[in-house]
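Practice problem: predict the structure.
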Amino acid sequence: MRNEIQLKIDMEPKKLLIVSEPYVRYTVRGYQAAVDVLEKKSKREYYIFISAKSLSLPLEQLRIENNESTIGLEFWINKKSDEKTSPYILAE
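Answer:
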């Protein structure tokens, strides 16, 4: 069964490890792509949505470099500002 707790990404950097391939989740806005992640500091599993362009573009590059797999990708993530539509920032 998929994790039911969504990780909220804010301005505080979080180190994540992706532990699943992308899958779709049903939301009030329709289906959206998601992955299960392990938040390294708390060692808890969550899911995150990955359809935002500022997140999907760098993830796709990392996925290609990782033998076309998202499983095992590890990176730091945060938002550029507190605004809801603020872009994501990824760093290895």
